[in-house]
Amino acid sequence: ALSGGDAMTSNTPWTPGPWRLEKSKTRKGSLFMSIYDANGDPVEYMTLRPEQLEANACLVAAAPEMAAILREFIRLGDTNEMNPGALHDLYGAACCVMAKAQGEDQ
Length: 106
What we know:
Radius of gyration: 16 Å
Order of helices and strands: HEEEHHH
Strand content: 15-25%
Largest sheet: 3 strands, antiparallel
Shape: elongated
Helix content: 40-55%
């Protein structure tokens, strides 16, 4: 099963997760998205393509958790540990991170 934050903070080339998303507006009223790491440090700022900005930011913010789920799936396959319980846990984690990627947990 996934080990929560440990799976997202293992050695990766990107900023460890989980990441969180914050919406704000610029002085001119444009939507501005900020993504922060678990320590509150900025990971990314997004302002391009306003019609897709929020969807893109949600997807980016979910990236560490998506990578952790894929890493665990690969590990289970590599170690022949695929079983109904492990797959059920991964399915639940995948459903949660997909909701985050689609902005449904905001």
